[in-house]
Design a protein that fits this description.
2 copies of one chain form a homodimer. The first copy, chain A, is an alpha+beta fold. Chain A contains 2 helices and 3 strands. The radius of gyration of chain A is 16 Å and the shape is elongated. The interface between A and B is medium-sized, with 34 and 34 residues.
Amino acid sequence: MYLAKVYITLKPTVNDPQGLTIKGALHNLGFSTVTGVRAGKYMEIRIDENDPKKAHSQVQEMCHKLLANPVIENYRFELKEIPA
Amino acid sequence: MYLAKVYITLKPTVNDPQGLTIKGALHNLGFSTVTGVRAGKYMEIRIDENDPKKAHSQVQEMCHKLLANPVIENYRFELKEIPA
């Protein structure tokens, strides 16, 4: 059994209105030291698979096919073995 | 200058329809080994602050006041010094 922690971020050149909105809200709350916010997604996926290589290639395929949009987003993930 | 990487997840007891939808979509794509998906948020925040303790307490306050809903969400973050 593996737990994949998947981090999806917009590519640095892509405009991020959600991040800009959060930055504006933080400024309004008085956090004037904030110079930039980029918003992304985070997912925890449990995989019933014993082979770490297979788990790795499966998560990579999931990211590419569904979880991230490779045109505008980058992804990275960590795999950790967990008790079933 | 500090970069805060903020991870926001739903508390384990809270229902996660987004995660269930992603799990269903992964099953439809043939990833039958997926036993669970929890969806969360990820943010990268740049802070113009030289004192790591101040940066830490600011990020903690931001999470508590705006970024996370402490009733249903947990948050954690990492701080890293970056060149200005």
